[in-house]
Amino acid sequence: MVNNPTIQSSLRLRAVVAGTGSSVPAKVMTNEDFMKIVDTSDEWIVTRTGIRERHIAGPQDTTATLAAQAARNALERAGMKPEEIELIIVATVTPEMVFPSTACFVQAMLGASNAWAFDLNAACSGFVYSLSIAQQFLSSGRYRTALVIGAETLSRITNYKDRSSCILFGDGAGAVVLKAVSSGPEGIMYSTSFSDGSSWEALKCQAYGSRHPVSIPLENPDMVYMDINGREVYHTAVRRIVELVNECLEKCDLQVEDIAMFIPHQMNARIIESVGKRLRFADEKIFINIDKYGNTSAASIPIALDECCRTGKVKSGDIVLLVAFGGGLTWGANVIQM
Ligand SMILES: CC(C)(COP(=O)(O)OP(=O)(O)OC[C@H]1O[C@@H](n2cnc3c(N)ncnc32)[C@H](O)[C@@H]1OP(=O)(O)O)[C@@H](O)C(=O)NCCC(=O)NCCS
Description:
CATH topology: Peroxisomal Thiolase, Chain A, domain 1
Number of domains: 1
CATH architecture: 3-Layer(aba) Sandwich
Mean pLDDT: 96
CATH superfamily: Thiolase/Chalcone synthase
Strand content: 15-25%
Helix content: 25-40%
Structural class: alpha/beta
Order of helices and strands: HEEHHEHEHEHEHEEEEHEHHHEE
Strand order of the largest sheet: 1-7-6-4-5
Number of helices: 11
Bound molecules: coenzyme A
Distance between the termini: 13 Å
């Protein structure tokens, strides 16, 4: 299946998906709910984004509690105990606190006492970046197991007075347990990652940090919220995602038809459909669940992958293509045989 010799030779050990899981807060916010707080309509939101509702964290939910629950579900499906995990990566832009890392909280909540744990911030590309890092550790033989989580409480940094951005975002977490094995499915076959820091202003949340510390009054109080240049992001995302898919197919010597499910970051249904059409993916092989969750940043791909696995849309042996684009700017992809 993988004819490229450079890929085959690097896979002495395979990083395979042993289980997936997800967790979203109970509270749901519909488009009708937004019509009560900003000047918008269900028709505008559905037509422009494909979103109908999103889950919003309650007072007891935090990024770490959602991440830990997603991880427990993934461990259960993998038939593994938390003590068996050797590496935990949590991708997030809404960490539990400045420090310690969210991953350390998750480690403690799970009782994963044999793992080392750290966070990774690559905005919406955080999960695909994290999978590529875990792949390196597992395929080199350094570790045997890893828990890779994407988790966000974006509602905590959403400006509910800005109608062009607030309708987009939701909260949740998704997780994948990876195992190093020497036979069976290929697991993570290929990963690729990019960044362009010169375009940082397109997607940002500026305070509080070193540049805008809490001790100095902000020139604009809205700097504590996410701020996006939707139009700019839209066009760049389409171009980069098409490039990523073409690179993955070429490097893995695959055709579009070989991909059982194309699972892109859920940023906008129109972006996903326009990319899918350009690349000639059959409609049933393009996974979209943004209607139920909105954009959950680093959590969106693992939530989608878990839904695909639980509903039988993706089966053992299938090849899936995960593609992300987000703040940084960052973008990246993974090709995985499940
Ligand atoms: C945000 C996004 C949905 C906006 O869609 P769009 O088709 O580009 O819409 P525009 O920004 O051009 O706005 C069109 C009009 O709708 C208005 N509008 C914006 N938000 C609205 C809302 N929630 N309800 C009603 N009207 C709205 C705008 O004010 C504008 O009005 P105008 O023409 O009178 O100025 C789209 O650009 C997008 O999804 N971008 C990428 C999202 C992103 O960056 N996600 C985070 C990174 S992963």
